[in-house]
Each structure stands twice: as C-alpha cells, then as structure tokens.
Design a protein that fits this description.
Blueprint lengths: L4 H19 L8 E2 L16 E4 L3 E8 L5 H18 L5 E8 L5 E8 L2 E14 H13 L6 H8 L4 E2 L4 H13 L6 H18 L3 H11 L3 H25 L4 H8 L3 H10 L1
Helix pairs in contact: 1-4, 1-6, 1-8, 4-6, 5-6, 5-7, 6-7, 8-10
Length: 271
C-alpha cells in the first residue's frame, strides 16, 4: 500500500468495522484491529487486507476481484498461520472471509491432507444493484439529505455489487461520489476512503487512473496519516497518564503496552 492503512483502520476501525462485518453477515464487537504487514514476509505478496479481532474469533477479511484459486488458498492458509502465531494470544478461532467481485456466496475448502482442511468463506454483494445504489446516494447528496453510517460503508463497497462497469471504472465512480459528499464526518470519511484506497491499490492497474483516484480521495495522504496519528497519540497519552498515576514507572508502562519509551517520557514530562 502507498498509504498507512494500518494506522487509519486501527484508528477508526473499531467504530465502523462492525458495520462492514454486518454487511458481510458477520457479527461481533471489535476488540482489536491488528496490523496486517509483517516484516518476516514480503508485504507485497503476504499482506491480508483487514484483521478484526472480536470477542471469540479473529476475522481475516480479503477483497478479491478474481476467482479464488489454489495459490490464493495457500496464501490465505499462510495468513491464518501467521496471525495465529503472532497475534492469537487467547487461542481464538480464526476465520478467513473473502468479499468477492466475481464469485457467488459459498464455502471453499483447501485440503491440507486427508485429516485436515481449511475453509474459506466467500461473500458476495451481487444481490445489490450498484448503479441503482449509486444513483440513490447521488440523489441524496444533491438534495442535502443526511447519509447514514451503513449507507456510507456500503458506498465504499459498491465495486463489489452488480454494476455495468468494469472494476476500475466503478471504483472511480464510487470515489467521485464519496468526494461529492458535503461535510463528511472525519472519522467515517477516513474509513470509507481507506477502503476505497485499498481497493484502488489492489484492483486499479492503470497507473494514471490509480493516481487520479488517489488524488481525488486524498490528495496529500500525509494529511490523512497525520490525522490518524494524532488520534492514536491521544489514546496513548491517556493510557500512559492513567498508568503513571497508578504508580507504574516508564519502563513498566512500555513493557505492558508496547508504547515507545521516549513517547512515555515526553508525555509524563508534559502532564
């Protein structure tokens, strides 16, 4: 990815991720948004799109514009093994869910051996008419009607609905619609733009069009990243001050939270 989507989704994912899960007929209160880039693997090849930890499960969400083949199945199995090894502190069940632009709802099974198999749950939004949905959203925008949270998240997923355009064209149309929304709330704006930018990086291979969509949605992505980082810093400052007030020293706070020791020292000095 050309922008820090881990940071953006970690910041706003707990607030709006459940709406995405609901649209995919998944349930759960999100407890943690895990990073999706691991240094031990090439992130260009091995990088799940979203990883949501809920009460009793971990959902790995993949966006796919082609049929899931054997290479995908092996890659998805690797994701689950990697997340299980690095992030599954409480031994929760891990499920791999694919939101597909091409396949119907189904469960595929990757056979590891005769005694072990790995299910891959494929989801489809082809029962939604994407062009009709875009027309409805554009009508509401023109008439200054307020768009609900679920409508906005669904808007970012129009490329997965049934449409008359190819994947690149519909991502562009969706991006234009998003940018036409007046007074879009910053938090949900970053979430739906983050999804659209993720789809752009994955599916828009035409270089000029890719850059056009990115500029349309974000312009200078540093503004988006700075906004997300400020939100993360606010939360970390609150954690540091609370723990310091309870008598924990800088090293203990860093060990328990993983927060940078220099950030902890600066926070304590400025409190």
């Amino acid at each position: 990815m050309k922008f820090h989507e881990d940071l953006i989704f970690k910041n706003v994912g707990q607030k709006f991720g459940p709406t995405l899960l609901k649209i995919m007929n998944l349930k759960g209160e999100i407890k943690e948004i895990h990073q999706t880039e691991f240094s031990i693997l090439d992130p260009k090849i091995y990088k799940p799109d979203l990883v949501f930890e809920v009460e009793n499960q971990i959902f790995i969400i993949e966006f796919q514009s082609s049929y899931v083949d054997i290479d995908d199945e092996k890659r998805f199995r690797l994701y689950t093994a990697l997340i299980d090894h690095l992030k599954n502190e409480y031994n929760k069940e891990i499920e791999l869910h694919v939101l597909s632009t091409t396949e119907k709802e189904k469960t595929k099974v990757y056979k590891i051996n005769k005694d072990s198999s790995f299910p891959i749950y494929i989801h489809s939004l082809h029962n939604h008419d994407g062009n009709q949905f875009l027309n409805m959203i554009n009508y509401k925008i023109e008439n200054k009607e307020v768009l609900g949270k679920e409508e906005l998240v669904k808007l970012s997923l129009v490329p997965f609905m049934k449409t008359n355009e190819n994947i690149e064209e519909i991502i562009l149309k969706t991006a234009i619609t998003i940018t036409n929304i007046d007074n879009l709330n910053n938090d949900i704006g970053q979430f739906i733009k983050g999804i659209e930018l993720l789809l752009t990086d994955k599916f828009v291979e035409t270089e000029n069009l890719n850059m056009t969509i990115r500029n349309l949605l974000g312009g200078n992505m540093k503004i988006v990243e700075d906004y997300a980082q400020d939100k993360v810093n606010e939360k970390e400052r609150e954690i540091v001050i609370n723990m310091y007030n309870k008598g924990l020293d800088e090293v203990k706070i860093s060990d328990l939270t993983g927060i940078n020791i220099n950030f902890i020292k600066k926070t304590i000095l400025s409190k």
